[in-house]
Amino acid sequence: MEPDNQPVSRNWKVVRIGPVRVRMGLAALIIVVIACASFALAREPIITFAKSIVSSFDDYAGFITGIKNGFTTISVLLFLALIGVLKLGAWNRSRSSAAEIPLSKPITTRYLLRFMTPLLLIFCAAASLNIYVNPRGMYNTNYYLPWGVDARETKTNLYDALPGTPEVVILGSSRAFTIAPQYIRQKLGYDAFNLSVEGGLINDSLMLTRYMSEQGDHTLPKVLLVESEFSFDVTDAYTASASPLRLIPFMETSTAALALRTRLEAAVDVQQVAESLWVMKFVATYKVQPKGYSIESDGLTLATFKITDLNAQIAPQIQTGIPAVCAPYPSAGGESALIDLIQLAAQHKTAVIFYRSPFHPKYYDAMVRAIPTLESCYHKQLTYLETIAQRYDNVFVLDFALLKSINGVDTVEGYYDYMHLTRLNGERLVDAAAETIQRAYAWATAKRGTNF
User: Fold this and answer.
1) CA 208 from centroid of its chain's CA atoms
2) What burial letters (b/e) apply to 391-425, b meaning 16+ CB within 10 Å?
3) What CATH homologous superfamily does 151-256+291-448 map to?
């Protein structure tokens, strides 16, 4: 046997390394690979996981935490056990002088697969579970309903089923969920549809406008009623992860690439594995799908839960949810999405009404106290948007920042929480916007003429 300190040959065909060094090198390589995999699953201190593994499994948060901690703790224990096995094997082999490794024998693919196959099987099992249950609505599987809000998937399916293009479509975030198309028909006589989506920002409204322009007879509604903060924030991450695959062609290129990458990463995400198991447990226990809201055929979205103490819903947001600053003007990305939406609507001779939905007065007053420049910032935002409306004659603006502007109510009859209106306040907002909707509709009708 050659000594351990034998020089290493630089000839790739014959590598003269002592057997002890070979074993130590392989063991170190395996330990590094397993350690990296375990760290990717862990992400938080091991001790914290071990202590919180006893979290209650009776509620969603406890179940998710327990499953994540359980997976991570098991992976850490397996990692430690593997280290012990490798150390024991190295010790046993070092005792035998016959445990020579042929100096010129390379590491075979079969040898590597012994270590990689279990890891690949774990990843495949996690991906299969996540895609099958689909707790976040990221894949085209419908065996279970997503745990979270899946308005994007549900509402685009409902829009596809419409017999024709509606005259008015509501866009925006969940703050527009309760704008009732039926009430618009009743009050104004216009056929309407609510296409607002969870977390909807101006880039989501642009994406959905592109989508509508390619459906049916390739025409847009006469009026788009777009709920938005006048700062026109944009974020690719949520749009990419929350939107169904069928909307990818209507995203920006960077957002579409992120959407594909997000789905690949989420397939083996431990958080989503825990959510999948929770959905399966919930359905098995209660024999119903987990839902806290309902979406009607015209897109109206209503909560199925009751609010008894509105102050309890608002107080935590006042304590921790008030933004640090107010942006008086949109970012470059926000302005680009805004102008693209306006121009696309103009090409279809469609009027666009941008409106700001009112926060609950208690929360609004707390924002004014926390951000001394808030009201001047809101004024600059409004002035900027009015300037846009002067450049584009298909743009109309409504500022409902204050609840009194829609003659709304600030009790549980009017709000679910600090910013989400109930159907009652949604109808009062339509009352306040009715004249502007009529003017926008008249503009679109005149532009289209009788042959459009």
Assistant:
1) 16
2) eeebbbbbbbbebeebebebeeebbbbbbbbbbeb
3) SGNH hydrolase (3.40.50.1110)
Structure tokens at 140: 């085209």
Residues 6+ apart with CB under 8 A from 170: 176, 179, 181, 192, 193, 194, 195, 196, 225, 226, 227, 299
Give me Rg for the CA atoms of the chain. 29
- Sorted by sequence, the CB contacts under 8 Å of residue 263 that are 6+ apart come out as 138, 139, 245
Mode of pairing for the β-strands spanning 301-303 and 293-295: antiparallel
The residue ranges of every structural domain in the chain are 151-256+291-448
pLDDT score for 95: 53
Per-residue pLDDT tens for 287-329?
Answer: 666 567 889 999 999 988 888 899 999 999 999 989 989 999 9
One-character DSSP codes across 255-297 = HHHHHHHHHHHHTT-HHHHHHHHHHHHHHHHHSS---SEEE-T
Quick: pLDDT tens for 259-278. 999 888 888 887 788 888 87
Q: Residues, the chain, total?
A: 452
Question: How many other C-beta atoms are found inside a 10 Å radius of the C-beta of residue 169?
Answer: 27
Do β-strands 395-399 and 351-356 pair in parallel, antiparallel, or remain unpaired?
Answer: parallel
